[in-house]
Structure formats: C-alpha cells, structure tokens
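Q: What residues go here?
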C-alpha cells in the first residue's frame, strides 16, 4: 500500500500557529515539534536512552500488534495517550515556519525510503512499508487532532 505523504504535506500548509486542537494540551508548534521528534528519533537522528531502547525492543512489537488490531485507524486510537519522553516536544528557538519546513522535509525523507527494511531506533528492524505506515498514522492522528485532516 502507498501512503499519501504528499497529501499530509499539503495539509500541513493549513496549520497555523494559532490553530487550536480539538483535544489535548499541545499547541500547534508543540505538535509539529512532537511529530518531528517522532520521525527523527525513529530514524536514529536523535539519541534515546538505553532504557527506552530496551523497553521498545521488548514491548514494541506488542504495541505494533495493538496498532494493527485497530487497523491503524486514527479514530480508534485513544485521545490524550501518553508518549515516550523522547517524543515529547521541547523548548526550541526555531520559528513555527522552520518547524513546519522541517516536518515537510522529514515526511519527504520517509516517503522516499526505498529499502525493504528500516532500522527503527525503538522497534529494531522492521519492514519499511510498516515504518511508513507508522509515521503516516502518527502524523495523521495529530493532524486530525488539529482539524487539518
């Protein structure tokens, strides 16, 4: 299956700094920062703690089975779910526009992955199509949270 990352990038253009979420505590800047962290941690571009890596390798496959049981349906995933500290938004001096541009570039990088397998920083070796599905699901979930999807 092909995941429409171009559509996500297009939807990102509708997000403004003042856009309010339908639920949750994050503002739009924090959400973009969180989505960037999610992709960058997943791809190994940001360091994670040994504890997170071990926890992910031990229990990550269970979480992936849970997502599969939901058919990766963003409407069935619970709102206000906890996240790993590595994915949490952090104080950044970057502008809102720079964060948006960074997310656009990160989504393009994921879209262009061609190898059969990807080394996920938390789950380990997974099929690239599953990695793309996870990123698409996660980003779609938060775009829905902010009413742009």
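A:
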């Amino acid at each position: 299956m092909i995941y429409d990352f171009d559509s996500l990038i297009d939807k990102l253009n509708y997000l403004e700094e003042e856009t309010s979420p339908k639920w949750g505590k994050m503002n739009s800047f924090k959400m973009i920062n969180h989505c960037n962290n999610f992709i960058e941690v997943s791809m190994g571009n940001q360091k994670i703690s040994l504890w997170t890596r071990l926890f992910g390798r031990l229990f990550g496959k269970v979480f992936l089975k849970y997502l599969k049981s939901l058919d990766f349906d963003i409407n069935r995933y619970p709102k206000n779910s906890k996240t790993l500290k590595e994915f949490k938004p952090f104080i950044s001096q970057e502008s809102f526009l720079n964060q948006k541009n960074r997310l656009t570039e990160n989504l393009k990088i994921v879209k262009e992955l061609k190898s059969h397998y990807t080394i996920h920083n938390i789950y380990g070796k997974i099929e690239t199509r599953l990695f793309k599905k996870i990123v698409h699901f996660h980003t779609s979930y938060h775009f829905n949270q902010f009413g742009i999807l």
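A: Context that may help when evaluating the design: The mean pLDDT is 88. Residues 1-12+43-76+96-149 form one domain.
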